[in-house]
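Standup, Tuesday
Yesterday: got the pipeline producing structure tokens again.
Today: sanity-check two examples.
Blockers: none.

Example 1:
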Amino acid sequence: MSVDVNDPAVSAAARSGDALGADAFKGVFRRHPAGVAVITTVVDGKPVGFTATSVISVSADPPLLAFSVDSASSAWRALASAETLVVNFLTAAQVELSARFATSGIDRFATTDWFELPTGEPVLVGSAAWVRGEVLQRTPVGRSFLVSVLALESDVATDDASPLVYHDRSYHGIGDHSVL
């Protein structure tokens, strides 16, 4: 059933037809929960990583995923040349790890437990799962890049771990307590 735009249940923003500003747009996505991952790779022989809440499944056949990264971030400088990477899907117990990999100007790997795959990419110990992939495409979108990745291998390290979710500027865990 269609509702009249003048109905009090319709928001003032919907009635005004004004363009959506950056702050309002960010506010929408603060209310949209997202899984938390850390993207890791190697640049010039050194491990590099950053926290991402933009990871999406694109296709199962072929297995493709994507994520976005701000072109002004230090993470983008690393990803601009990376051929392969690992997406580490975090558990609720890894809040500190997520915060560390979201902090600029520190050695994010200094106090992190990780191991190197035979192909050279770092994997974070304790993640719920990880996917190693080949970067297929870097598409400029606004001031960010959408990075498309072909999944090459994966491992589900922890079957029963509660996933880490970011919602409204805070971390949450999903589990039996949150099932509706």
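Example 2:
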Amino acid sequence: MTPAAPRVAVVVVNYNGTDDTHKCLKSLRELDYPNAEIVLVDNGSKPQVGAAFASAYPWVRVIQNPVNGGWAGGNNVGIRDALARGADHFVLLNNDTVVAPALVTRLLAGLSAGYGVVGPLVHWMDEPDVVMMDGCTFDAPGSVSFFDRVTIGAPPAITDVEIVYGCCLTTTAEVIRRIGLLDERFFLIHEESDFCLRARRAGFRCGVLPETLVWHKGSSSFQREGKPLQRYFDARNLFLLMWKHVGSYRRPPTRLRSWLKYLKHVYYFYCVCRDKGNDAGATAVLEGLSDALCGHYGPLKARPRPLVPVLRWVFEGWRQRKGTPG
């Protein structure tokens, strides 16, 4: 007898993105893999739409999460559910994507090549010939950036990376049992980086399959200063990512340089926002740094932040003396 194909759970999280999620589910309907279950988590949308999705897509397992747990919390709800029902592999997929029918088949082929975490090439939906995401390194010595893209080789070889982007990330039940679920303290941004770095520390390889299997909504003409929420979670969560990994991931002489690079990173985005008149973005950077220093993680909450005026005074003093760093 031919052994049954491994059971795969494709987890999609919806939060107030109904139109995008409809497109995503319609593309998932065309998957050529025989044992894939689609798990849709409605992550506290207002109004809640889980029941409507369950009615429209009876072949999808729909879970209504009563609160917005962020990307990390929403995916964890789907992972726990599928893991308890015997899933062997997991594909975490953004809801604002469409996929190729061979998505699961090809990603499992990547895992079978000796990897614990695999992602595909992701292209822009509006510019389908342009790569949006592939893979990257984290805090490479000598780099001015924390995330440097890795050149992806030609098919069929998988390219080893340190981080697979969470837009489409595939892993196994074995990896999750060994390292745990996504860290919900991140809520949004950098949680997949933490997951990949934890997997690598546990001895698993991360890689990018050199095949375009996912198209992601958006435009490549991204405004550099970003939205305030992006600036907040980037400043806050990069601190947490470094706190968890820099001490063990890099040798001691580079740790201080890494933290100085982090300070320059948040100062840079503060200055970019101020120079563009985006005062909300600049304040979000300071609030993210303040919450990181005070250990406040999870969803963004209104709270007193007495450090913000102090940080603003320091950053404005540097800005008057040095200007925006290059």
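Quick observation on example 2: Confidence is low (pLDDT under 50) at residues 219-225. The two ends are 63 Å apart (CA to CA).
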